[in-house]
Amino acid sequence: MSWLHALKHTARSGLTVERQRLDPLVAVRAAAGLALVVGAALYFFGPAVAASSAFGAFQAALATFQRSWRTRPVLALASGASLAVTTFVGYLTGAHPALFVSLLAVWTFLAGLAWAIGPTAGMIASSNVAIMLVTVTLPTSVAAAAGHAAMILVGGLVQAVLIVLFPVRRWGAQRDALADALAAEADYARRLRHDPVAPFDPEPLMTARSAAAITPRQARRRPAELHGTRGLAERIRPVLASLADPALGVPAEGEQRARVRELLAAAGSTLDAAARAVRHGEPVAMSPAARAVLAVPKEGAVLTGPARRAESRLISLLRDVIETAQGSGTTNSPRPGRGAGEADSADDTAYRTARRLARSAARRVARVPENRADPHDHLLRPTVPGLVPVALRAMRAELRRDSPVFRHAVRVAVVSAIGYAVGASLPLGHGYWAPMAAVMVMRPDFSQTYSRAVARFGGTLLGVGLATGLLQLTHPDTRLSAALAVGCAFLMFLLLRAGYAVTQVCVSGYVVFLLGMGGLQWTQTVPERVVLTLAGGLLAMLAYAVYPAWETPRLRTRLAGWLVADGRYATAVLQRYADPAGAPRDAVREALLATREARVAWQDALERAANEPVRHRGLSRAAADDAPHALAQLARVAMLMEAHLPSRDTSPVPAAAALAQALRADTEAAARAVRERRAPRWEAFRAALESWDAGAAGDATADDRFVRKGAGLLLAALNELTDALDAEGPRPQGGTARTAA
Integral membrane bound transporter domain location, by residue (predicted)? Predict the structure, then answer.
């Protein structure tokens, strides 16, 4: 993509207004906290203290709107406390320009590294630096600076207290994440009826897993319906795929296929019912048709062999989903697998008792401060103090020249210092607008930085224009200016998901009215804000062009990482068949999670690379389309085999050990070949498969035949990857491939 096209695309993206669901109650609560802080500070201390406390309450409220699984009071307190420390330290050096610029560069560099912890930490750290540039100009002494910092902390505390006193939909984000995962699987089940090899995006399951990680204190308060359902949903997905797939399941047509379609439709209906129940905290309402289909056949079962086992697993898992989604255990419909008027059998009673014992054990584990728990019920998240060493390790790991986060930290530190010097040298006053704009728009990737720069300037221009017009019409006093500032903040909280340009319109009006509350006329703030915001945005855009962190050249590395993760996943599955009793219990699960993370990393990288003005140095468009399809197929075959993993007392499949060893060696060598622009080869895995075929006996077991068929599908997926990448690298000569120049 050329620079002209990239600039057009990012500008259009930055100015896009999105239609999103509004949360008016949350916006009212945040604005009420801001109004309380500003009103009290204005009444007791005056406009200057009110302005600084307003920034604290505003920043704390903004932090609670971020996409984080931390509790909102914790986010508000963390934001208020960090901003208070930042502003106080900044004021201590504010009287010495050289020292302040040095501190600004160091502080901004650390804020840039904070993106290694996560987007929420990066946003809070960047906002702290930006607001510090404004608040350090308000105090007149060290004591006054301490007072301003205390009021900023009070602003965060007030927001946290309001969240505790007036909760809006407790655990709502976790409910939505789990319900979205169940709904995604329901949609997947329905699509499998018509397309037996339909793709599935694992991102909803990954989001639900992130949402399920909670602190021990949260574990004691989490609603019962959020216990265990996510783990069951994870186990349902491979069973659905194995039932539908004609290669390892039932034939494409016939009586068995009709039964599979009925099961998939019933599974979709049941998962949708569970999703609605989890989202709204209601009982699960199953349809009678789904109950009839999922009733355990007493005799005359249509499916046989592995498909019959998959059917039994699906019915059992859906029964568990219904039970766990009920939360309290009450229901207005019988569980699948039992008739409408039948009472609990002895097995059902034993099953309920076992589930209660499992949940009790999970709650006991939740009280233990260790990173282990029921793998399908509870994932521990470190507390805020426990997060400190984790955050430091994450930031230290990014201290390398090829890291996008490190490059972002260097860019933002240099730009903030240069921007501050440029703003101070211009005869406009309030020179901090330039570095503040640069810090707020800069992100670790190209697309977000440029789109936010355009959106910030456009939003600022419109926002200050509207605010100035309102000032000219109303000529507000201090109290009315404070009320108008709170009104602008409310609109920003309400429209936060509508796009960055929309929020900047509201923020610009908020700042104009807030500074007007302190006695500054619009003629003293509006022109310089527009000019210096433009200067800061241009500096941010120029910095990325001079010192970029392009994703395009790293596409092959991302693809190689996905290949290694897929190979380890398939290897772990084969090892379970080779040694059902001795293979590590969690190896398959951990490998699956690594595969999902590698796939999402590839998709994010490909999306970022598509908008970069970089001459092609990664993958061609055709290879970028075909290679991921082959890797997705590789992981899919491994997942189908995982759906039929043998129990620990099952006889092993000896040949699977040689296949696993060969596959691991081939995929690791292939990953190196992908990075070096050579087409991968699979000689060891093909030789192991041919050796098995040559020595196969006539009395092979069902598991032997199943693994042999699955291994053939794995090889087909690997060959598809070779075909996709073969044209990308140099052609082999004399039986060997040349290394890329």
Answer: 419-542
